[in-house]
Amino acid sequence: MDPPSSAARRASVIAGHLLGPYQSIANFSSSPVTPSPCLNYSPPDLSEKPPAFDVAALRRILDGHHHEARDWLFHLMEESPLFCPRRRGEFTFVAPDYNQTKEQQRAATMRRIEYLLGQGVFQGWFTGSDPEAGMRKLALFECIAVFDHSLSIKLGVHYFLWGGAINFLGTKRHHDKWLNASENFQVKGCFAMTELGHGSNVRGIETIATYDIDSGEFVINTPCESAQKYWIGGAANVGKVFHSTHTIIFSQLLINGTNQGVHAFIAQIRDNEGNICPNVRIADCGHKIGLNGVDNGRIWFDNIRIPRENLLNSVADVLPDGRYVSSIKDPDQRFAAFLAPLTSGRVNIAATAVYISKVGLAIAVRYALTRRVFSITADGPEVLLLDYPAHQRRLLPLVAKTCAMSSAANFLKRLYVNRTPESNKSVHIYSSALKATLTWNNMRVLQECREACGGQGLKTENRIGILKAEFDVQSTFEGDNNVLMQQVSKALLAEYIAAKKRKHPFRGLGLEHMNDPCPVIEANPTSSTLRSTEFQLNIICLRERDLLTRYASEVSRFQADGESKVNAALLSYQLADELARAFSERTILQIFIKEETTQSPGRLKDVLGLLRSMYALTCVEEDASFLRYGYLSRDGAAAARREVSKLCGDLRPHALSLVNSFGIPDSFLSPIAFDWIEANSWSTVNDE
Amino acid sequence: MYRPPVPDPIASSLCFASSSCRPNRFLHCLNKLLAFDQGMTSFSQDGGNEAATDQVLVEGSRFTRILILNRPRQLNALSSQMIMKLLNVFVAYENDPDVKLLIVKGNGRAFCAGGDVVAVVQSVTEGNWTMGAEYFRNEYTLNYIIATYSKPQVSILDGIVMGGGAGVSVHGRFRIATEKTVFAMPETSLGLFPDVGASYFLSRLPGYFGEYVGLTGTRLDGTEMLASGLATHFVSSTNLKKLEESLSKVETSDPFAICACIDQFSKAVSLKATSSYNRMDVIDKCFSKETVEAIIVSLTLPICSCCKEKEAESVHDEWIMSTILSMKKASPISLKITLRSIREARRQGVDKCLINDYRLCCHILRQEASKDFFEGCRAILVDKDKNPKWEPSRLDQVDDKVVDRYFVEVRDANWEDLKLPARHSLAAKYVSRM
Predict the structure, then answer these.
(1) Is residue B432 part of a domain?
(2) Spatial distance between the Cα atoms of A61 and A174, rounded to a whole number of angstroms
(3) ipTM of the complex model
(4) Looking at beta carbons, which residues of chain B come within 8 Å of A119?
(5) Using the beta-carbon criterion (under 8 Å), do A71 and B294 form an inter-chain contact?
(6) What is the pTM for the complete model shown?
């Protein structure tokens, strides 16, 4: 065969561009000596099979609520130049300009807040009190975080922390004075709890408030450097018009030399022109690995004076004559009441973490459906990333986990907005467990997605890499994940002891399975057994049941050896970790099963079943405790592992539809999710 | 808000929202279109009866066919015979290698004033609502075929283009506006909503212009159509004959060649000072609000820095007054359905939009929550007293849950969702001329 003329070769390359990969693959098979045409991009939406289920219906399940309001807000952000629309090839993407200085990012964040405020996005965030308004607020919050974590945290500090403190800890006089003014940002608030020396241990903070009977004022002081308020979002420099004017101060309350414990006060830190008030010193926390659109600051108080009325007094009050009165006598409970505003933050963080995982997965899966690497046959076309079983194993279990966690986040949100005094304990436990589990999952998802996109994952414009930095903080703020998980186990232990002592059955927190006979697990489960809801629930519940019993007996053994109750729990930290994980995963599985069973039979339900099996068996595969404590035989564990691999193959055809059901608008994804060849072509270089 | 200059016709005909952030995932698949692999070829090319043949005339040269909507006394309103005839013709020509280009135009002073809804309402009042549903089913199927058509269509909009008229033109690749063009989607004042897949193209107009056009039913002239991207070219009415002659000589389906041919006759035009398109800042500010109520409230508030100058203010006020008035006159439930439909369409392909339109339509024909469509037709088209009595009569009486019900499947054992003919796999879902 004659070598093709250069013109003919060029024509064939162009034809390859025009005709798409099918043609080029066809060329390969018929005449293997044809020079390779250039790579070309084939959109996964055309190359993949059409959806086998109703994608919109799955989106409604996963979003759970207010999908119209979400789309409205997404579109508001797409349409405003403040959200930095950037043209890449035929696509436009919105994302903050992370190349700006922290000062510029802060100012941009505040301008976006102004815009959203003007559009009525925050309407009813303080003043609406019904559960629906609460759910709407949470939905909109998730969407805002999809654009930028700084934007969501600035709003979170103002609405959830500052506003939440006034709402929950204040009384009518505070509500009347502050809530309306805060909803429309006339008053800009922050929340000064954490100190340099004390973060998770809020009870140990060193700031001191003393009551001065003569003037009827509190005098608040920072007695030492470790007492400086630290990480106070919204406290530092954002440019005069946008400065926070007020803060909640958490402080020890001293009355006549008696420490009444931690209380919350309102103090003005700047005047309306943005000048710092006398006896207040403020400094910046400096540049961070992410969240530079938030002005985290440090505050010192030099005996500032605030009126007695500024004590948030729903829990406890100081009368003008200096008498201390409280409706809650137990100081532990009183302290717990002061932490109420943090619960809403945890709920919100957990829900946001899932949405961000969806962004990462949608990008990585779409990329894996278009990027090819290595031929597996001589002269054959290179193979799509997602057609490699190993690549499927990296991404698809995370897709399943993220779907299951969506349902769990929706459960948590509903539990929170419908909370009652009786449900406060379970709200605390669920929010702690899910906040930790969902944010850890988010970091893991983003890391895996970053690596799954190779070098492209490093580019800020592709989002995944920068999201890692921006959302890393989720693991430690509003409660350090490790501390929260230890608290969950402690709470479960308390349930256990109470049930045993009173010989009552377990009730609540999903622990009812503890009352049933211990499940028996087959030594050699078949594929269909492994995929059955019954088997999955049994094995996941068995782990929790056994770990709870083990934890209780280890703690009591340490106590019997003379350790204090507290120390005994600390020494049992390994079991506590395992137990909290077992509790979280069992909770998520149960919620996801419930979601599946409410669906009528059909293809959507089948896919939910695949996702559920993938979730459950991945949990089994990834936790050594199933083998360590013998819940599964070695053969059983091997079978579960094989089943995960099979499930990857079963989910592969649905991969695109699943990430489409995440409901993230195209413009909030990134160039590698679409035509990354066009986006990187020479002709676009000048647009960058 | 960044506004593009009057857009490049090829680019804009491919993708509407050149200024917005909605990428069209499937733009580049355009040329890979679209085998029509469904058995609709059984339609005979001549259509049914003699009358139908008269209502759509077909002329043509070697490679070009000119379809002329021919009911001038009814302003070319689409009768069901016309729809069937157009279906037949479009299907037949897609597979005919001798046809490279379709031109669609109207006889008389209208391109097409809409669907023949009076006939629909009459048939529904006389008998079963499903007869009306059938009309819309065929119309939407036609819209879909046009939106996913593999050969270029040039629509010459030399007169009135409303409702159904937009459905048979705007989904096609090239839309030529003239100084005689009057465009509107006036359905909300009729107790209906912008159907024929209009939610698809309205949602892809710059900013919130689509919400404005759909909710108010405002009239646009040819320049405004061009500026917003509803039209791809502006040609003087007097040059149309020469354009047609030139297009008749085209021997290719290549959109670039056809575009170049039209370009020769295109005229640079500028917006009138009073054009709504010059009010995009207000439109974006107000029509971006979450609900119809909030949109109206925001229009009544003293707005923005743009109207500080005294002189501008009076013009501005007049425009705002008429904008508010048109929504006050419209059916409240229609307004809410329209807003929801356009907003949902942003995330949907043209097929989903049409399936949605069909659901909405069937609920309306069944008069479940409201008889507004029948009342609107009576007041505007039959009795012409222009004084419809909407029920519910106020926006705040329209419960969101009632609106929700319009968007779900119809509860009737014999009813099913609109089944669109299979086009080339997934491509058809996204590929449209917009």
Answers:
(1) no
(2) 39
(3) 0.80
(4) 288-289
(5) no
(6) 0.88
